[in-house]
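Page 42, continued from yesterday. The earlier attempt failed because a stray header line got pasted into the input along with the sequence. Redoing it now with the clean sequence only.
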Amino acid sequence: MDTKKVKILRNKITVPLDIAIKLLKENNNDPETCIEKFHIKNIKQVSLIAECDFETAKENYNFCRHHIEKAIKRINSEQIILTTRETPSPRNKIGFILWPKDKNGENYKSAKRNDAFIPTPDFDCVISEFKSVYPIENPWNGFIETSFDLCGHNFFSNATCNIIVERIKQNHTKDPKIEKFKNELIEWLNEKLTYADYIAVYGNL
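This time it went through. Structure tokens are written below.
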């Protein structure tokens, strides 16, 4: 084994000696190929654990200076954005935040953020389905809410959310971007409804 190349490789990536030797043997004693494959393997690991696509994993892995755990934590701390736009960004945007709650009104604690942000123009595509289930009872104070609050909190029970999901499914559109957005919202809601007692919808206007 070429000790010089082992040293070059270990100066570029932090790996034990035995791993460095193994990488070089597997890659024709070429440090640059070893480095490339090492990072690709790590990015795939980030993608798998954080449940995201390769490019998202790569971006965060590079941002965190090739630290796997930090990259995963950074991805898991990001809010999901559901939108029809090509480059979504929630910063300083008006819209609606959705998140699951339990029967006591508490938020669920998880390693991965479980809330979603929908910009107002996109939420307008489904707002009629949310409005259609009123009047409903506020589970925390027992009051009967007669209309959807555009700039406050709205709480929908698991059963009510299932009705909303079905109505979104039935309201088709020929616009592929809107249809994709609706499918992503349905997927998000269905995943949360496997355990959540309520879905909160907050308008940040």
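Notes: The radius of gyration is 23 Å.
Reminder to self: strip header lines before submitting.
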